Write a sequence for this structure.
């Protein structure tokens, strides 16, 4: 059970679909009210009949298992006395009978093709008034895995009410006047009908993993059983194990009644190992088995884990601690004790604590199991006194660090600007600057200069390294990691790709709504996410609108899957559960919006509308407090191109104004710029700016300039007190390191060329060595995902993330530094070599330690650890040749964690 | 059994993470996966000592299937039809005599391989190669009627290199993630306890990062045929050694709990860097320790297969009882220059010569290793090419034919799937001889996955569209390439 947002999707239940019916008909005849179909009902619902029931979805595999039975219910506005002559398409009628005034039809699905109709008809039913009439119930569409849950099953039977054909397409045909005579011979004998059902084996649930210590009782695990014929009390249970030395048969108990049973066992004394408990469930003629894997080993301390809601904050600082991720092989943890490191303690699985003073606090959780064994886990909470919440004086080192967050790394000129303007002044200057947009003419010019091609990546490299509007370019790069596009899969010429990315630049400090609109109407996106051919549903061939963009515009480009609070934490319903914002039904509704959009004459033009292919019916978009459309319903409209555009605009507005949109995007943008693990408080402040509120808000929702400012000026990234936290900051993207090295070292690859850095943009190479390159993400999910974290790391144990480490691996850990070395650091020709090298050498005058310190001062964004420095000095002293030394120190610095991790 | 317990427990902690990180239904799927995997692990605990490896040879650019396997006999789909359909591209009949293959299951119908594939033809006729015919990426079964009225879902971006390469590697043509089928198979083998875990990933790419070998937990180990890449900061070996040591020392600092600069973010970064370096060293040692693998012909594909053979020879040192390899060669996108003066020279002939040399070398080498029955080699490619000639080349197509090579594990000397109708404009043509596949990549991949030991119960999760093409529980619906 979960809370529903008012008017939003109803959670799909496996079972009975209600279908509207036209109620017109002869008044003497019963009116068909509805036809519904679904899995067999549970015995509780129809105890007299005791039909086969299922416990959860059963698979309809059209090739493997063509005989799945379904029950169709026909409801009338008055009791039915008799029924005869049922038939069905795509199914075999197995049984028809009337009970309690209602006809029931049992059908077996035939092997079906995706998107075929399942219809069930009853030739005649008789009402109490003695009127026989014909009725037909069209039950729905049979699909493959329509609901996307991984199996083709009952959940994929789509009632026409929700069908893409629209609510008007034939549901149940109204009653027709028919034969007035009741023929008692045609009334079915219920007992006989029951006998026609074959006896099927009991259905038992899947066994789950069980644990026990030697000689000890296991925890009980439940299992569910159902039988088509025997009542569940009469089933017989026989439990054995595959290794009686570990689990003697007589030590296994199956208790309980009805369909709910419980299994537990006592392990043999001294046993250790694994086996399987087999619970056989017998009815009159057949048997089913449930397998319970069993592990027996001595009790061990738990694997203690906990998460912190706010790992950093300003005193007095309150944070919630949650130990529910703690696990124990025997599941017997009985107590959680907390030592907050400030002299305070608490007990409980979930606790909250306020740190009154500034400082670093090592918070230790002790998890105690039933045998008194203890396990501990320690994470740090870092509390600031807030005296430098604005970051304090803008020193050269601080300015460098800031430019790693706000630009593609620092240059001396930018450092000087930041120092003179201050952080906010520099940001304001960036906002006021002209956008440096990509120009296809530049590429054509280069092509004419013998470049053999027009690769938009050349401009991207050029702008990352030298464009003056660095913050805008950096935001554009962040945005295309949210609204992902692959240049090889946009189906467009390079001029269009150039134009496309220019909109990301143009809106980098513009408005997210404008970007989303451009993207949605762009031919590259319509190609990449496949809606350029999408048309309204066609009942003649069963085709339905493409759902690709409908899914991603919500899941990835605006609101995500889960309802979010204003601070980006998942909302909880009244039961304390997270809940999804929408289901597949909603995606289908949005898919109807993105129909009839077609390529215009040129790739570069916005899509045109093809009214014949668009679905102009009512569409249920998302409903939420403050939604623009009443109840979230987009009303149907006349068949014009303008109305297609209006539908699409309404859908964009519908997601853009959703309350989850601001926190969803805020967290992603923070992760790209400053911090992998922003606290909810930080996310909320940035989300407010996105909404036009707070100290940086401009009153305009979607304002990305205000958002960028909030991201960069937040105390959580400026206050130096937080740098000592082990969890703050982020791993710098390898592509950004690549560009930053050009900027820091002042290396110019080919000074005389149109694109002096274009060799770095032979961008199969960056991609193969760094797993990152301009518009090269392999999927719409970007190079890495927001929750990515190395398994087994301290970060993972604290439920924190480090997305960029997804692309730091056996290959890139070596190849990326090699690439930086080859492409940037090792330039040796005069005029291309870093001018810093000569400066370092001159200052060092033969002293390697001084050389290293000079390099550190120019390259690092935070102080280098002295032990790391000592290792580098030692190594450089073993390298001969001046420029060999400068290259060695630059390369070792570039791959040391103090450089690659931006605190 | 104790080792198995260890892997179960670590798998368990992994899955907790997987469930957190997953999107939507994936969390539920992961939970189902755990339960089944645990059962699988317990069931398979005794079978850890057998060794099996699969080797994927990817022909980038789209192999011209029309000139790879040619109808040879009379009949409605005969050589004459081939000759009239392919026009300038045709291989002369009298050049095909020595590469005729006689499948045992085509009712006597014979075919001929491209003349450059002489050794492959010999291996076919000796029962160590089979052909999977008419394979292509499919979302669901497709035919001309469904194609015309769009009543079956078409794979996205048909005929486009990027997308079709991806789809072959994903197997699931409409997948929305980038987990390849080789990666998913490895995930299942590790989770099920079938494959041993090792620091060096069991999936090994000779062609950089790729989708095929990327799983949720198993990420490919990437090396070149010359061996793993090492840090190359200085350009001379003695100074490189110094700098590599410094790199290792810097990374090791983060593992020292007394280190004042310790930081969770930096530590996570440094651990991966350190592992990368130690794996590179280990793999380098394995390659150097090889004694049984002869030098390959000095060509790209054979040299990759030489490195693979050495990794197979060193599997025990690497801690592997299952390996999946990815190697590849390019140059198949022959819109022009497919033929030279005739079909016996030109680009395609040169490419196939290398394929032939590679397979011959690898087969001989596996013989020297005594592992022919343990290694299955198969080809893949973006797509087939148009049957229509564009003058001296062919364009992007769809269905194509592929080779599978192996010892006793293979049902050899057979053709699986129906050889396609080569009539241009015929009942399988979507235009210009872009033929509709009758065999899905899923069905083809499933054969390899099954042989590697993926439990049947896991197949639905690894190949979510598979049920549309066959019944995993019913062998008569399988292609049956592998025994």
């Amino acid at each position: 059970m979960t809370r529903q947002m008012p008017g939003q999707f109803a959670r799909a239940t496996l079972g009975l679909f209600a279908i509207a019916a036209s109620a017109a008909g002869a008044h003497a005849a019963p009116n068909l009210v509805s036809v519904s179909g679904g899995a067999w009902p549970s015995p509780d619902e129809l105890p007299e009949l005791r039909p086969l029931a299922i416990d959860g979805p059963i698979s309809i595999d059209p090739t493997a298992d063509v005989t799945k039975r379904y029950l169709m219910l026909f409801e009338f506005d008055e009791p039915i006395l008799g029924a005869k002559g049922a038939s069905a398409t795509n199914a075999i009628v197995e049984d028809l009978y009337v009970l309690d005034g209602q006809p029931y039809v049992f059908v077996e699905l035939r092997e079906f093709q995706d998107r075929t109709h399942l219809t069930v008809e009853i030739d005649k039913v008789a009402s109490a008034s003695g009127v026989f009439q014909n009725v037909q119930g069209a039950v729905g569409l049979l699909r493959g895995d329509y609901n996307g849950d991984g199996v083709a099953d009952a959940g994929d039977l789509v009632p026409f009410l929700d069908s893409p054909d629209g609510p008007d397409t034939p549901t149940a045909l109204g009653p027709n006047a028919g034969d007035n005579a009741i023929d008692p011979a045609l009334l079915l004998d219920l007992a006989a009908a029951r006998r026609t059902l074959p006896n099927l084996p009991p259905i038992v649930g899947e066994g789950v993993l069980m644990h026990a210590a030697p000689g000890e009782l296991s925890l009980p695990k439940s299992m569910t059983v159902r039988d088509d014929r025997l009542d569940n009390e009469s089933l017989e249970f026989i439990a054995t194990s595959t290794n009686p030395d570990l689990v003697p048969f007589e030590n296994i108990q199956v208790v309980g009644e009805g369909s709910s049973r419980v299994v537990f066992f006592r392990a043999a004394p001294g046993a250790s190992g694994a086996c399987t408990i087999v619970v056989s469930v017998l009815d009159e003629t057949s048997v089913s088995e449930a397998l319970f894997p069993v592990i027996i080993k001595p009790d061990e301390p738990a694997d203690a884990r906990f998460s912190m809601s706010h790992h950093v904050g300003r005193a007095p600082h309150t944070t919630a601690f949650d130990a529910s991720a703690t696990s124990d092989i025997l599941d017997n943890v009985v107590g959680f004790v907390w030592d907050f490191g400030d002299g305070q303690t608490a007990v409980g699985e979930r606790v909250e604590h306020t740190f009154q003073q500034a400082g670093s606090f090592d918070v230790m959780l002790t998890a105690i199991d039933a045998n008194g064994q203890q396990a501990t886990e320690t994470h740090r909470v870092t509390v600031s006194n807030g005296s430098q919440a604005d970051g304090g004086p803008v020193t050269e080192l601080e300015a460098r660090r800031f430019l790693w967050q706000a630009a593609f790394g620092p240059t001396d000129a930018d450092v000087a600007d930041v120092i003179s303007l201050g952080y906010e002044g520099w940001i304001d200057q960036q906002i006021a600057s002209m956008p440096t947009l990509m120009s296809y003419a530049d590429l054509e010019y280069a092509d004419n200069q013998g470049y053999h091609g027009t690769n938009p990546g050349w401009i991207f490299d050029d702008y990352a390294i030298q464009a003056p509007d660095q913050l805008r370019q950096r935001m554009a790069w962040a945005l295309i990691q949210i609204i992902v596009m692959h240049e090889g899969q946009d189906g467009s010429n390079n001029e269009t790709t150039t134009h496309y990315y220019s909109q990301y630049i143009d809106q980098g400090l513009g408005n997210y709504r404008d970007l989303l609109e451009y993207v949605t109407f762009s031919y590259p996106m319509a190609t990449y996410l496949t809606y350029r051919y999408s048309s309204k549903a066609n009942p003649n061939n069963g085709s339905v609108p493409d759902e690709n963009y409908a899914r991603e515009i919500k899941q990835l480009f605006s609101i995500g899957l889960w309802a979010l609070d204003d601070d980006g934490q998942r909302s909880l319903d009244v039961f304390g559960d997270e809940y999804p914002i929408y289901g597949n039904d909603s995606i289908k509704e949005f898919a109807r919006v993105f129909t009839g959009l077609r390529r215009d004459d040129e790739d570069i033009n916005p899509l045109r509308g093809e009214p014949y292919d668009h679905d102009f019916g009512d569409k249920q978009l998302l409903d939420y407090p403050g939604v623009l459309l009443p109840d979230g319903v987009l009303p149907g409209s006349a068949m014009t191109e303008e109305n297609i555009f209006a539908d699409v605009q309404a859908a964009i507005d519908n997601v853009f104004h959703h309350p989850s949109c601001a926190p969803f995007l805020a967290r992603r943008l923070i992760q790209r710029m400053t911090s992998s693990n922003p606290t909810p408080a930080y996310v909320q402040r940035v989300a407010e700016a996105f909404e036009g509120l707070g100290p940086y808000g401009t009153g305009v929702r979607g304002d990305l300039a205000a958002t960028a400012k909030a991201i960069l000026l937040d105390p959580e990234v400026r206050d130096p007190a937080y740098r000592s936290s082990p969890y703050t900051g982020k791993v710098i993207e390898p592509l950004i390191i690549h560009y930053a090295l050009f900027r820091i070292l002042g290396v110019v690859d080919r000074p005389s060329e149109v694109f002096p850095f274009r060799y770095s943009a032979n961008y199969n190479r960056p991609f193969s060595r760094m797993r990152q390159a301009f518009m090269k993400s392999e999927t719409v999910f970007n190079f890495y995902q927001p929750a990515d974290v190395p398994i087994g790391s301290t970060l993972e144990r604290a439920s924190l993330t480090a997305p960029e480490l997804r692309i730091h691996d056996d290959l890139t850990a070596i190849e990326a530094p090699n690439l930086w070395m080859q492409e940037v650091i090792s330039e040796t020709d005069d005029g291309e070599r870093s001018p810093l090298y000569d400066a370092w050498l001159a200052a060092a005058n033969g002293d390697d330690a001084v050389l290293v310190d000079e390099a550190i001062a120019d390259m690092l964004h935070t102080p280098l650890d002295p032990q790391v420095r000592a290792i580098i000095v030692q190594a450089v002293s073993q390298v001969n040749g001046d420029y060999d030394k400068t290259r060695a120190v630059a390369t070792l610095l570039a791959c040391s964690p103090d450089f690659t991790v931006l605190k | 059994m104790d080792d198995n317990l260890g892997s179960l427990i670590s798998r368990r902690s992994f899955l907790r993470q997987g469930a957190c990180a997953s999107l939507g239904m994936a969390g539920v799927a992961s939970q189902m996966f755990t339960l089944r995997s645990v059962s699988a692990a317990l069931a398979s605990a005794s079978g850890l000592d057998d060794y099996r490896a699969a080797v994927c040879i990817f022909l980038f650019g789209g192999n011209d299937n029309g000139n790879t396997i040619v109808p040879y006999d009379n009949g409605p789909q005969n050589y004459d039809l081939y000759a009239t359909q392919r026009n300038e591209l045709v291989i002369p009949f009298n050049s095909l005599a020595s590469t005729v293959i006689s499948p045992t299951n085509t009712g006597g119908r014979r075919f001929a391989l491209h003349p450059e594939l002489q050794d492959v033809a010999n291996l076919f006729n000796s029962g160590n190669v089979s052909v999977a015919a008419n394979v292509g990426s499919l979302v669901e079964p497709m035919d001309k009627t469904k194609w015309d009225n769009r009543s079956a879902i078409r794979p996205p971006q048909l005929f486009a290199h990027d997308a079709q390469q991806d789809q072959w590697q994903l197997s699931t043509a409409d997948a929305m993630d980038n987990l390849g089928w080789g990666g998913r198979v490895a995930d299942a083998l590790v989770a099920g306890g079938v494959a041993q875990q090792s620091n060096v990933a069991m999936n090994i790419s000779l062609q950089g990062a790729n989708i095929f070998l990327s799983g949720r937990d198993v990420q490919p180990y990437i090396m070149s045929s010359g061996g793993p890449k090492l840090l190359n900061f200085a350009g001379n070996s003695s100074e490189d050694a110094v700098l590599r040591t410094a790199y290792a020392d810097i990374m090791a600092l983060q593992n020292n709990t007394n280190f004042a600069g310790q930081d969770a973010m930096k530590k996570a970064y440094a651990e991966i860097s350190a592992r990368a370096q130690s794996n590179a060293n280990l793999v380098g040692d394995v390659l150097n320790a090889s004694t049984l693998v002869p030098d390959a012909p000095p060509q790209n594909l054979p040299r990759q297969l030489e490195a693979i053979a050495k990794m197979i020879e060193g599997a025990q040192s690497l801690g592997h009882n299952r390996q999946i390899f990815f190697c590849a060669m390019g140059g198949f996108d022959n819109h022009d220059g497919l033929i030279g003066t005739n079909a016996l020279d030109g680009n395609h002939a040169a490419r196939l010569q290398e394929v032939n040399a590679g397979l011959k070398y690898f087969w001989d080498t596996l013989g020297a290793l005594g592992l022919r029955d343990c290694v299955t080699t198969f080809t893949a490619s973006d797509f087939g090419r148009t049957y229509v000639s564009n003058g001296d080349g062919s364009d992007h197509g769809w269905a194509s034919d592929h080779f599978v090579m192996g010892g006793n594990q293979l049902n050899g000397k057979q053709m699986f799937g129906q050889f396609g109708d080569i009539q241009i404009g015929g009942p399988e043509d979507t235009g210009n001889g872009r033929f509709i596949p009758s065999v899905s990549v899923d069905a083809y991949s499933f054969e390899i996955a099954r042989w590697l030991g993926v439990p049947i119960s896991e197949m639905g999760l690894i190949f979510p569209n598979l049920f549309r093409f066959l019944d995993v529980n019913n062998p008569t619906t399988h292609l049956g390439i592998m025994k």
